[in-house]
Specification:
CBS-domain; 3-stranded mixed sheet
Length: 142
């Protein structure tokens, strides 16, 4: 299965912010949307950064609560690891493991096309195992 298939199944909506949004505003979006990362984009939907829950906590630990009033551009990851829609799930897992990334934005033609989390990958594997189990049961009963 490809990243594109997972996106088609789970949806392509991504919570995004601009670089000028404060860390507090981004943290509120993380909380309100029950997500672990927001993607920072420019006006043309090009990915310029990513901010995760861990980044917020690390910023508070390092700089104190005052960092919440700073723009996300001051604490976001600028060198964002991205994947493409045609990437296989196996390659995606290898990439997530290699870079210790729990969220990878998906790019298509240079623009943001979705986001894949480690939870999405786990759900994919659970569904694949369930399908395989049903096929084996049907074969045995068959």
């Amino acid at each position: 299965m490809s990243v594109k298939a997972i996106l088609n199944e789970k949806g392509r909506s991504v919570v995004t912010v601009t670089p000028q949004v404060t860390v507090q505003q981004a943290a509120t979006l993380l909380h309100d949307n029950h997500i672990g990362a927001v993607v920072i984009v420019d006006v043309d939907d090009h990915i310029v950064g990513i901010l995760t829950e861990r980044d917020v906590v690390a910023s508070i630990a390092k700089y104190g609560a005052g960092c919440l009033d700073k723009p996300v551009s001051s604490v976001m990851w600028q060198n964002v690891y991205c994947c493409g829609e045609e990437m296989t799930v196996q390659s995606l897992m290898e990439m997530m493991s290699k870079f210790r990334a729990r969220h990878l934005p998906v790019e298509s033609e240079g623009r943001l096309a979705g986001i894949i989390s480690i939870g999405d990958v786990v759900k994919y594997h659970i569904r694949a195992i369930e399908r395989e189990t049903e096929e084996i049961k049907a074969y045995i009963a068959g």
